[in-house]
């Protein structure tokens, strides 16, 4: 691997046809306190992680109003605003936080409007490049929740709409109403519950953003074997595999450490052999 990692080594991906970013992003959930609640224990350390990500060519940052709540978005603006021209910030709305570790869906149109407008204020943006419904609310028809986002898009407050934590039928239903630029589901080398969703995003040219992209990878034999061969960590192999799994995958490993950011971005330089990549892919069969 090169001495100076760069997210550009992963190539680029198009979001919605008019936004291009490097295919290694940054997940900003871990810029908060324990339980994804309140401020981080060391705010300067969290800001250093953000600055390091941008320094290494990361120009896609994923966050949500529920991270903190509000903490992650506020830190991003405090650290990076005014933003570099190529930065794409994606946020999410639709989950509320009664307390640490507690996540509850709220897909009511009036809540989503207030959530989006709050995110715009905290992030100091006039338009959200990518706004994602964090999770469908079983108490609210999906069409009603999306209707609020469509209205906000028509008003110029949202550029592209994405979905998170959704099934294939929900994606298809959403596509009947509006263009869907991204899908963000849990997916990694160990958890392949969204395998068919990755394939769907491949077919539809939708960006697939896997959350928890490196979780539990250190207990998978093919991952550990490849890590030993390349002299890298299992987490780096898990990220390198995601980049080979589909050209529509945009990993967003999250951390509050600048050192871990460097390690994650360095994964873009790992060249897995077909044998190594296939051994990990076949874990799903």
Please specify the SSE layout and strand pairing.
Layout: E1 12-15, E2 19-22, E3 26-27, H1 43-55, E4 60-62, H2 71-80, E5 88-93, E6 95-96, E7 104-105, H3 109-123, E8 128-133, H4 142-154, E9 158-164, H5 168-175, E10 182-184, H6 195-204, E11 207-208, H7 221-230, H8 234-245, H9 258-266, H10 274-281
Parallel strand pairs: 3-4, 4-5, 5-8, 8-9, 9-10, 10-11
Antiparallel strand pairs: 1-2, 6-7
Helix pairs in contact: 1-2, 1-9, 3-4, 7-8
**Tally of discrete structural domains:** 1
Give the spatial strand order of the biggest sheet: 3-4-5-8-9-10-11
Series of secondary-structure elements, N-terminal to C-terminal:
EEEHEHEEEHEHEHEHEHHHH
The number of helical runs is: 10
Helix/strand-derived category reads alpha/beta
Report the top-level CATH class. Alpha Beta
- The fraction of residues assigned to DSSP E strands is 5-15%
Give the name of the CATH architecture: Alpha-Beta Barrel
- CATH topology-level name: TIM Barrel
The largest sheet, given as strand count, sense and whether it forms a barrel, is: 7 strands, parallel
Query: Which geometry do the CA atoms define?
Result: globular
CATH homologous superfamily, by name?
NADP-dependent oxidoreductase domain
Helix content: 25-40%
Mean pLDDT: 97
Work out the radius of gyration. 18 Å
Q: Could you name the ranges where pLDDT drops below 50 across 5 or more consecutive residues?
A: none
Distance between the termini: 31 Å
Number of strands: 11
């Amino acid at each position: 691997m090169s001495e100076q990692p760069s997210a550009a080594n992963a190539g680029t991906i198009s979001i919605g046809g008019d936004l291009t970013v490097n295919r290694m992003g940054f997940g900003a959930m871990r810029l908060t306190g324990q339980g994804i609640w309140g401020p981080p224990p060391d705010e300067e350390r969290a800001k250093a992680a953000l600055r390091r990500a941008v320094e290494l060519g990361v120009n896609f940052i994923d966050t949500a109003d529920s991270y903190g709540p509000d903490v992650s978005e506020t830190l991003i603006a405090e650290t990076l605003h005014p933003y570099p021209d190529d930065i794409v910030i994606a946020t999410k709305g639709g989950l509320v936080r009664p307390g640490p570790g507690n996540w509850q869906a709220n897909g009511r149109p009036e809540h989503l409007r207030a959530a989006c407008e709050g995110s715009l204020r905290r992030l100091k943006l006039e338009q959200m490049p990518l706004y994602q419904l964090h999770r469908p609310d079983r108490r609210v028809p999906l069409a009603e929740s999306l209707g609020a986002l469509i209205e906000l898009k028509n008003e110029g407050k949202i550029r592209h709409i994405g979905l998170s934590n959704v099934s294939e039928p929900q994606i298809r239903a959403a596509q009947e109403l509006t263009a869907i630029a991204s899908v963000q589901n849990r997916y990694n080398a160990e958890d392949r519950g969204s395998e068919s969703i990755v394939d769907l995003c491949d077919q539809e040219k939708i960006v697939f953003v896997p959350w928890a992209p490196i979780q539990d990878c250190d207990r998978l034999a093919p991952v550990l074997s490849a890590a030993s061969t390349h002299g890298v960590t299992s987490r780096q192999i898990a990220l390198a595999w995601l980049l080979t799994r589909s050209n529509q995958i945009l990993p967003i490993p999250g951390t509050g450490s600048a050192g871990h950011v460097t390690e994650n971005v360095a994964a873009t330089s790992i060249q897995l052999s077909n044998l190594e990549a296939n051994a990990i892919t076949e874990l799903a069969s």
